[in-house]
Write a structure and sequence with these properties.
alpha+beta, four-stranded antiparallel β-sheet
Length: 103
């Protein structure tokens, strides 16, 4: 599984617009092949910080997501409104079943 963790800092005057385009992006992305989950949330300690967490079935699905014109337009629009550059980190991961070791 591929895990994407990112964040973007809003300015007070851009927070509402950044949230709106982020929710639209999340809802669209969830319909793409290979998307397991895609979420955006506001940090409770830093309300201007938007956090993104995405889970993709494989790297090919994530690369296809990055090639979607709407994804590219979202990234450009978000960067244009953000206070600084949005950050993204991509990881290859596997889920660990913590209950499997009990017994």
């Amino acid at each position: 599984m591929i895990l994407v963790i990112g964040h973007a800092m809003a300015k007070p005057e851009t927070l509402h617009a950044m949230l709106a385009i982020s929710v639209e992006h999340v809802l669209r992305s969830r319909t793409e092949p290979g998307c397991i989950s895609h979420e955006v949330s506001a940090d409770v300690q830093q309300p201007l910080r938007l956090s993104f967490v995405e889970r993709w079935s494989d790297l090919a699905a994530l690369k296809a997501h990055f090639r979607v014109e709407a994804s590219r337009a979202f990234a450009k629009a978000l960067a244009g409104m953000a206070d600084g550059m949005p950050q993204n980190s991509v990881y290859q991961s596997e889920e660990i079943d913590l209950a499997a070791g009990r017994g």
